[in-house]
# Entry
Amino acid sequence: MVKGITRRVIVLKPKDKLFDEAIFIVSGESGKEVSADEIVRQAEKIAGEYAGARPRRKNGAAYLPVLFAAVGALSASLIWLVALWLL
# Structure
């Protein structure tokens, strides 16, 4: 139980039904310096960042695991062929 502390809470209810609500607790100092509209705007921005898609890899980095797997398979095959040739 919390006594003697008052907290300002922002509750965002999304339009889709994936989540019921998002709850943000406003820190005591920033709530007095910033307007209510700015607090809601920042809460919506933060919720949007978490709800957004995964960050995409840049410059073709998505193909690196495939490239490493292909190089590994090729090198293992070459080592196997050389070992057979030497026997």
Observations:
- The two ends are 77 Å apart (CA to CA).
